[in-house]
Amino acid sequence: MPLSHKPLHRQVIVITGASSGIGLATARMAAKRGAKVVLVARNGEALETIRSEIEASGGHAIAVTADVGERREVEAVAAAAVSAFGGFDTWVNNAGLTIYGRLWEVSDADHERLLRTNLWGTVLGSLVAVDHLRKGGGTLINVGSLGSDLAFPLQGMYCASKHAIKGFTDTLRMELLEEDAPVSVTLVKPASIDTPLPQHARNYTESEPKLPPPVYRPEEVANAILHAAVHPVRDVYVGGGAKALASFKEFAPGAYDALAPLVTSFQKRNERPRDPAGSLHSAKPDGRTRGDHPGFVMPSSAYTRMSLHPVSTTAVALGLAGIAIVAGLGARGGRR
Q: 107 and 46 share a domain?
């Protein structure tokens, strides 16, 4: 069935991983645009600070401390949204962690913890959300990664989790379509985003980790997420670099694999690790949208903006082409 979602200012949006990075940027932007927000993360103290900030600015938000890898805690998030706001219209599965280290160096416990948050958290959040949304309609948005389409060394299990999220999301979308459920499902695939993710990572390497370029601002992902909350879209790459790299790997996989040493070097700073344990097993102080990436951060992505508005982009392109043709004809006429 054709899907039509509420305008953002009439929506209730659940956002996991809302205490920092993409989740926090999305929560702030959603509240500023009038949406009611359900903030979800393990760090209850950080969430309460963010909730107070939103309320002080005239917005509406509740904070729910939860580990998304536990079903009963995810169900408690949905129940809190129903209790506070009567339900929810969009659910964003954004909570995620990473590990820097060779696959054979990482402990089984660390691998399992990452998968429980990244993959199992997305699975549980999706199933709990869809159980509610299939009754009244709405949007499910899963935050994957460029790592959903390609792999890179030192973050092997992170890439595995994001590949799995893509497969799960695509299957869930098909099953919802099969029963004609009024739920749109979007997979957002960001390139490297300047968030505290590297500082929160479990780190097995001898260096402080960083993000491989190109790197974009978290607000660019937040804008794409909130667009998908209102306008159903299947997949969104955030950052033209993400689309370019995915296309390169698809058409020249061997050549991409040969870049492994370069990709590895791009993920290491020339300094010792600051906090090798990170926040994999326990929440650390949060409340920051941006990380401290040492290189250039792209302020926006023209590719993503155009992909979200293809009709208007085509109209502009045709208009510019028309102006060029008229100008060309005028010049030819003048020469005659």
A: yes
Contact between 99 and 106 under an 8 Å Cβ cutoff? The reply is yes
Kindly indicate the confidence band of residue 2, based on its pLDDT and cuts at 50, 70 and 90.
Answer: low
Query: Could you give the CA distance from residue 307 to residue 235 in angstroms, rounded to a whole number?
Result: 10
Separation between Cα atoms, residue 198 and residue 291, nearest integer Å = 8
Does residue 57 belong to any structural domain of this protein? yes
Beta bridge partners of 214: none
H/E run at residue 177: helix 156-178
Residue 180: count of CB within 10 angstroms of its CB:
8
CA-based angle 115:154:103, to the nearest 5? 60
Give the number of domains in the chain.
Answer: 2
What's the pLDDT at 209?
Answer: 97
Within this chain, do residues 205 and 329 fall inside the same structural domain, yes or no?
no
Strands (E), 17-161: 36-41, 60-65, 90-93, 99-100, 138-143
Q: Can 303 be counted among the known catalytic residues?
A: no
Whose tokens are 């998304």? That residue is 68
Active-site residue identified among 158, 216, 237, 256: 158
> What's the token pair of residue 331?
């010049």
Instruction: Identify whether 201 is part of a domain.
Output: yes
